[in-house]
Design brief:
Elements lengths: L19 H21 L2 H15 L5 H21 L13 H7 L13 E3 H13 L3 H7 L4 H7 L4 E2 L1 H6 L3 E2 L4 E2 L3 E5 L13 H15 L12 E3 L1 H4 L25 H12 L3 H12 L3 H4 L4 E4 L41 H10 L13 E3 L4 E7 L7 E4 L2 E5 L4 H4 L7 E5 L2 E2 L5 H6 L4 E7 L10 H8 L7 H22 L2 E3 L7 H10 L8 E3 L7 H12 L8 E3 L7 H12 L8 E3 L7 H12 L8 E3 L7 H13 L4 E3 L4
Parallel strand pairs: 5-6, 5-7, 7-8, 15-16, 16-17, 17-18, 18-19, 19-20
Antiparallel strand pairs: 1-2, 1-6, 3-4, 9-14, 10-11, 12-13, 12-14
Helix pairs in contact: 1-3, 2-3, 3-17, 3-18, 5-9, 17-18, 19-20, 20-21, 21-22, 22-23
């Protein structure tokens, strides 16, 4: 999200020139806004917000106190929203295709559409020109123009909403529903322009081209797509008129500006008309939809172009080295940086909430720069603090420089100082006697588990915003409404083969109570063991997922303790509508299987018709016990053997 997103937005007057359906949508949104205001005005919410804001104003800000009060405010606001009828957006606002189409429609006869989407073809063509440019001046002329200038000079840069509606919505080998549209999440490099030399546009275009050809045919991203890029999609101010007092680290409030600064700032503000400012405000009020919507793909930029390593809001790194997967004609990117900026943090969290991750369609999230990084680390207190088995990172000591560089357990070490690492013993040999080493590391994007409103509040409370007091309470309220709304509406939660373990399962369990409409939870092909299974079972026992029909936990690492926790939860009435329970390809033994069988035999999960337990560690005795329950419960099939 751009630096200009902090503009103050007033209420939008009703527009009587809209089509009846659009007027109805606006009326629903207005009612929701009024209900939101009612929830926000409850005494508990007002008190929690005041305490939070007071902590933000303290001269020596206590970070732990701020985080605790942020969570308290989020919890209080969430409770008020859930108790106030109509305070959340209409059902389906964050899940139906019509919400995207409505956001692209003009607000009246000849009016301005709040958002326009760029054509992926135009992005690729523009990037090709940028790659051929030989000077910075040429690149500045070819960088992404603001939307108004594109509309005037290059209208072909956009895809119309009519064309987007015409494009296929079923994709992959099983007809997965997706729009041929995506959002680009990246960091603005300067307050005036997000990408002064077009480097990030080139990286985005290269990522789109890779997405169109990598993997099996059914995993290819469509060759024709609409892309949300905030600077080209929203009505922006003229970057050529920006002056330092208008934003960034050099921002000055109006009363502190000189007469010359004030005149320049006024000219900058006037570069966007009143109608354009209104359209920007409408878009900003629901900006999160472009990142959170499950029918849209996300292109996530996790790194900065070389030379921007010390950009405000990012952790500084000692060395910026070229990304070895990029050719010299492309922009080079520094080592993986984890943003401390608030808005990029929100965007990366939004895209991970509810997008369907399945192997039979193109991925919902693409890593723009790719996974291979060149990193330099140093000895600290006589050690590099990194243990490598064969060529995978096995252990990282706290405080080691590898952690600062973003390396995680399981990452692949490709080389040390140019020497390939392929087998055991090569890594210790290559680092022996050295104080500093250069690593080429494969660091793939790891999709995090979705965050609850409280977890999101804890996260953003530690991030940087232009004005914490002005922005952070608003951001927490926005995130709370968004998370409550989307999980209220999600019918299928599919997180297949995303590499999740117990930590992610614990985090997911915090979200599940919000999923009151979900009928499918699919977590197959992950690394969840007993700890994660226990967390999920505890959520089920508290009433989470009351309408669940299908639960997929196959191909994980769940053992007896996890199975017994599930048995205990369903024995207390959890998952009353469940029909299919998949636990095959785990590590469940006799104790876990028998516990489940006994619970089912006593009437747990009364709607259950299929229980899969094959490819576990079951003796014949345990299998016989399970089959006995099948005979007792009419209409139930318990599968204990593959054949």
């Amino acid at each position: 999200m751009g630096c200009n997103s902090s503009n103050q937005v007033g209420s939008t007057p009703p527009n009587t020139n809209l089509p009846s359906k659009q007027r109805q949508t606006e009326a629903q949104q207005k009612k929701a806004q009024e209900a939101e205001a009612t929830a926000a005005a409850t005494p508990d919410v007002v008190a929690a917000k005041a305490a939070f804001e007071a902590a933000l104003e303290e001269a020596n800000e206590d970070q732990d106190k701020v985080v605790a009060l942020a969570e308290a405010y989020s919890n209080c606001y969430a409770t008020a929203l859930l108790k106030t009828p109509g305070s959340l957006p209409p059902e389906g606002f964050y899940t139906k295709a019509e919400s995207i189409f409505d956001a692209l429609m003009p607000r009246g006869d000849g009016g301005i559409a709040p958002v326009k989407l760029l054509s992926s073809k135009w992005i690729k063509d523009r990037a090709a020109k940028l790659k051929k440019a030989t000077t910075d001046e040429e690149r500045r002329k070819l960088r992404l123009p603001r939307r108004q200038d594109l509309e005037r000079d290059e209208p072909e840069a956009f895809m119309s909403v009519e064309r987007l509606k015409e494009l296929p919505r079923k994709h992959g080998s099983r007809g997965t529903e997706r729009l041929q549209a995506a959002a680009s999440s990246y960091c603005w490099l300067t307050p005036a322009h997000p990408d002064p030399l077009g480097e990030q546009l080139v990286s985005l275009a290269e990522a789109i081209k890779r997405a169109e050809r990598e993997g099996e045919w059914y995993q290819h991203f469509p060759s024709e797509a609409a892309i949300f890029v905030d600077f080209g999609s929203l009505c922006q101010k003229d970057s050529d008129l920006w002056v330092p007092c208008c934003g960034g680290p050099t921002y000055k409030p109006p009363e502190a500006r000189t007469a010359e600064e004030a005149a320049a700032a006024d000219a900058y503000e006037a570069s966007r008309t009143g109608e354009e400012r209104e359209a920007f405000g409408v878009a900003l009020s629901s900006m999160q939809i472009w990142y959170v919507h499950p029918l849209l793909t996300a292109f996530l930029t996790r790194t900065l172009p070389e030379g921007y390593e010390s950009i405000a809001g990012y952790e500084e790194v000692r060395h910026a080295l070229a990304n070895s997967t990029l050719t010299p004609s492309l922009p080079t990117h520094s080592t993986a940086l984890f943003p401390q900026r608030g808005w990029p943090t929100c965007e990366s969290s939004w895209v991970a909430l509810a997008k369907e991750a399945v192997p039979y369609c193109f991925p919902p999230i693409f890593d723009v720069v790719g996974s291979r990084r060149t990193i330099r680390i140093e000895r600290r207190e006589g050690s590099f603090g990194i243990s490598v088995g064969q060529n995978r990172v096995g252990r990282l000591d706290p405080g080691c420089s590898a952690i600062d560089a973003g390396i995680k357990e399981g990452d692949k070490i490709c080389s040390v100082d140019g020497v390939a690492i392929r087998s055991y013993g090569e890594f210790p040999r290559e680092i022996h006697g050295k104080e500093q080493i250069e690593l080429v590391v494969d660091m793939p994007y790891r999709r995090p588990a979705p965050l609850s409103p409280a977890a999101m509040a804890r996260l953003v409370a530690r991030k940087r915003f232009t004005s914490k007091k002005g922005d952070l309470p608003m951001v927490i309220a926005l995130n709370t409404r968004t998370i409550l709304s989307i999980f209220r509406d999600m019918k299928e939660l599919k997180y297949l083969s995303v590499g999740w373990g117990d930590d992610e399962a614990v985090q997911l369990a915090e979200v599940l109570p919000l999923c009151t409409s979900a009928t499918v939870l699919d977590l197959r092909i992950n690394k969840i063991s007993d700890g994660g299974a226990k967390a999920l079972a505890a959520a089920f026992a508290e009433g989470a997922l009351p309408k669940l029909k299908d639960l997929h936990l196959e191909d994980n690492q769940i053992g007896d303790e996890g199975a017994k926790a599930l048995a205990e939860a369903v024995g207390k009435g959890a998952l009353p509508e469940l029909k299919d329970l998949h636990l095959e390809d785990n590590q469940i033994g006799d104790d876990g299987a028998v516990a489940l069988a006994e619970a089912v035999g006593k009437g747990a999960m009364p709607e259950l018709t299929y229980l899969a337990l094959y490819n576990n560690k079951l003796s014949q005795t345990a299998k016989d016990a399970c089959k006995a329950v099948e005979a007792k419960r009419g209409g139930l099939f318990v599968r204990t053997d593959w054949i």
